[in-house]
Every structure is written in C-alpha cells, then in structure tokens.
Prior knowledge:
The protein has 217 residues and is α/β, with parallel strands linked by helices. It folds into two domains: 3-115, 3-Layer(aba) Sandwich (Rossmann fold), CATH 3.40.50.2300; 122-215, Orthogonal Bundle (Arc Repressor Mutant, subunit A), CATH 1.10.10.10. The protein has eight helices and twelve strands. The protein has helices at residues 11-23, 34-43, 60-66, 81-90, 102-115, 147-158, 166-173, 182-197; strands spanning 3-7, 27-31, 48-51, 72-76, 94-97, 122-124, 127-130, 135-138, 141-143, 164-165, 205-208, 212-215. The longest helix is centred in the last third of the chain and has 16 residues, at 182-197.
Amino acid sequence: xxxxxxxxxxxxxxxxxxxxxxxxxxxxxxxxxxxxxxxxxxxxxxxxxxxxxxxxxxxxxxxxxxxxxxxxxxxxxxxxxxxxxxxxxxxxxxxxxxxxxxxxxxxxxxxxxxxxxxxxxxxxxxxxxxxxxxxxxxxxxxxxxxxxxxxxxxxxxxxxxxxxxxxxxxxxxxxxxxxxxxxxxxxxxxxxxxxxxxxxxxxxxxxxxxxxxxxxx
Length: 217
C-alpha cells in the first residue's frame, strides 16, 4: 500500500483529501503545518507528498527545498504562473490549482507514483538498511555489518510487526548465509545489537523469551 503525506492547514480540504485517498486504498499521513511535516518525515518515508503552499510554520516553498527527494504535488490556490514555475524549478513534480478535480488529482498521483524510482531500502525510525551495498545507516552514520548480521537485520526489518521465531529466522537467512545455527544465532544477534547501540540509545532488537526476536516498536 502506497503512503501519501497530506500537508494542508485547511481542515475541510484536508478531510476531503484524506477521504479521497483512503477510498483509493492509499495509506495517509497528516500534517497541518510545515514544522509538523518535517517531524513526520523524520520518522516516515511516504511515497508521495501533497503540499499546500500557504501553511503555518515553514512555508510550502521552503519545504519543497527540504523534501525534494520525494515526489511532490503542489495543491495551491496560488494561480500565478511565476509561483508555479518557481515550485517546479525548486523540486516540485507537479502543480494543481484549487479548486481541484478529484479524478484529475488521482490521475496525477498515479502518474507520479509510476514515475518514482522503486527503492529497495528498508527503513525503520533511525535505521536505514541499503541492500545495494549491504550498508546500515543510523542517523547518517555508516555501520559495517557481516553477511550474517545483515541477513538477520534484513528479515527483522521486513517483519517489523511480528515476532520472528528462531527456526523461521534461520530458514529465512539460510538463503544469504548457510553457516548459522541456533547457537551462533545468539552470538550474531548480540554482535548486531552492540554495533547498533554504538550509534543510538535504542535497543532495536528485542528478544522474546523462548520464541525468537522482533524489532522494538
């Protein structure tokens, strides 16, 4: 399910947008100011942003400069061509003027989601696992993992909502590493925890006694 962040301070418009997107099976994140949007983006990576320009706190124009790594559709009452050009040149992907047509909005969203490059990164709060080079980033700090540590963390991040039993975890990581057994698994988990704790105070890997492991919520 794709996630869309709505940044809009007008409650009535915000509710309309949320209703439209929810009915189309999008997951919705809500921000009513530029400052709130930045706080949400620190912990979440939506697939697309719907952005009003005239919002309290940090302006929409300033937000575009900060979040142009994501597809952004500006949804604004500003109809001046200069405003449109500036937004597009500064990183926005599309610009729709209010009042908007529902079907046109949905079509433009689908186009941007289709054009957006697929990311294989696994992200959870401060953790960002990059499969392309088997690198873990914690708040931009690079953490070197062994092949087995990487395989373990990968499976835990894929299954963040559940406890992964020891036997299932061993099965899942056997594709990437064949030398791990239940005894050595505990050692790899311990080493992985130690490496992560060097860069954050949070112990992200929880042991569920007698069952397995999970990512801390």
